[in-house]
Every structure is written in structure tokens, then in C-alpha cells.
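In keeping with the milestone schedule agreed at the kick-off meeting, the structural modelling team has produced records for the first pair of proteins. Each record is given below as a sequence line and a C-alpha cell line. The laboratory manager (R.T.) confirmed that both were archived under the project's standard naming scheme.
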Amino acid sequence: MAIEFGEMVSSNAKRAARAVTRALRVLTHPEARRSLMSLTDQAIVSGTSFATTVILGRMCLPEELGVYYLALTAVWFVQDLFWETVSTPFEVFNHRSRGGRLHLYSGSAFAHQMLLSMALIIGLLIYYLVLTTSGAAASLVTAVLVLIGALPLVLFREFIRQFCFSRLRSGVALAVDATAAVIQLGGLGLLASTNMLTAASAYCAMGVACGGGGVGGVVA
């Protein structure tokens, strides 16, 4: 009985060791690491968005949260537009270029992103003027004014992270989004502690965070 029990324990230990070895082999594979970093990155982005909503919901009036969500709809629309017009074509075609051609194509994609940002700034300026002349809520007018400066920074960060993903540099993309998350949540905490947190100031924090994360990605 004791011998059989010992053999069973030994057999189970060997199976567990083989399972751990296989798991470690999988986790150390480059593709597995990139997948894990991509999942972690998405968790950071989604978690930051959720935490921002919770903080605004807890610390601000319902009106401010509504303005934040209304402006967030514009942010999501702009990001979708960016993905369809700049990011997706770049992800598909950048692997066909090498060396100088890749740098030229990357510069072209960035130029298109800048043109899109300029068009959005013009559109938001027109919308801002319409709101100011139509007697819209002051919180909405202020939020739109802040978005004029924040949205180009959001697109800048998005371009950097999508460039990193398309070039299989998931670690850099993770660092970009982690940096932006720390700056954004830290800024929101500072604004909340000083009773200065509004939808507009939240987008200020978002813009600074995206700018900081994007610059960090360029340096990396």
C-alpha cells in the first residue's frame, strides 16, 4: 500500500513538473510574450477608462458625468475614424516595406494623422462657435474647448501605440499606455483632492497623459 501510494505521488509529481515545464516553454515563446503583453495593455487601457468614469461619477455632479460621456462619444468616433483611415492601412501594408521605404511610409502615415488632427480641430472650433452662440451649457462649451487641444494628443498616442503593435513592439506599446494611465489617474486624483475635477479638467488630464505617453513611445 505504501509503495503504491509513493508511486502514485511520484507519478503525479512528474506530471505536474512536465505541465509546469510546458507552461514555462509556452510563456517564454516570443509570440506568447507578445500576446500576454497585448492583453495586459488592453487591460490597462480599459481599466483606466473605467476608473476615470468611476472617479467622475463619485466626485462630480451628474451633469459633469453626462458632459464627459457626450465628449467621450466624440473621442470614440475620432478613434474609429483614425483606425479606418490611417491605422488599419498602415498595419496591413507596413510589412511590405523595409529600410528607407518603411521610414518614408511611416512618415506618410504620420502626416495623414496630422491632417486628420487639423481637420478635427477645425471641426471642433466650428462646433465651439455654434455652442457659444446657441446658449449651450457652460460645462459642455468648456469641454469642447478643451477637446480642441486634447484630441490631437489622443490621436498622437494612438498612432504611436498602433505603430508599435504593427511593428511587433508590444512592450513599447505597453509602456506607452502604462505611462499614460499613471499620469491620467494621478492627475484625476490631484484634481479631485483640490475640488477642481470637472469633465473639462478630466480631458485636460487625458490630453497631458496621452501626450506624455506618446512622447515616451517616440523616445523608446
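The second protein of the pair:
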Amino acid sequence: MAGFESIRFHLRRLGWPGAFGVLLLAGTAAWQLAVVQPRAEALAAQWARNADAVRAAQAEQVAAAAAEAAGVRGQPTLAPAAAASLRRVFEAAEAAGVALPQGDYRLTEIRDAHLRRYQLTLPVRGDYPAIRRFLATALNAEPALALAGLQLRRARIESDTVEGLLSFTLYLEAGA
């Protein structure tokens, strides 16, 4: 028990403030080992994961840029008749001065009738007469195009701009 007596001697020599300081130092060392060090290691691991994610995102951007430069290869190609029909629809929109920012296109096969049905959902933005001109031009230019739905909305009564959603169905032969 000589070691214990030596510790008691030194603590008595330091007094209560010194003993409290030693206790604080021991608590700080324990806190460092139990809390700070594991969190620092977890933070370092998170930094490494973030760096890996940044490198992966940059690699994906480079790959996407290369794919875009080489053309869209991951997309299925449209049949020539469908591409020509869609080109006429977009030309009609451009001629009428209507903006078609994006669209949703779905292909379904009608086996009994040997037809392909392209369902087009196009958000549209423009003034009302321009949208009417676009519809008339597109439907007259493409006989296989049918208007399936039309939703128009004007944000304010005094606004000239109308936003809408046009739903078309384009019918083509299965081989075309």
C-alpha cells in the first residue's frame, strides 16, 4: 500500500484546490478518450466519404458531358414516322409562338389493332390565340394526332399569358 500512501501524501500537500485541479485534469483526459477522440475519428471518416462522393459526382458529370457530346445513346430511338410527326408538332408550336419547355412521352402498343400509341403530355405557355393557332396547326399538319385533353389556366385575369397542359395521342402503325 505504499503507492496509495504516496498519492495521499501528495494530495494533502496540494490541498483542496490542487486536488480539485488534479481531478479536473483526470476528467479532461477521460473526456478526451471517451468522447472527443471517437467523434474526431467519425468526422474524419465523414470527410473521406464526402470526398469520395464529390469525386463520384464529378466523374458522373464528366460521363454525362461525354454522353451529351456524343449524342443521346441511352434513349431508345424513335421510329422515323414518330420523329417526323413530333418534329411537325414542335414546328407548329414554334410557328405559333408557343413555348413547350418539356414534355412527357409514353409509348404503348395496341396489339389487337397493330398500332403504336404515343401519349404526349406537353405543358404550354403563351397567349390564348397563339395556343389556339398551335392546336389548329398541329392537328391539321398531323392527321394521326388526336387531342386527348386540354387544361388552361390564367394566373390573373389581366394577364395575357396562359399556362396549360395539352395531352395528345399520336397513332402510328406498328412497323412505322
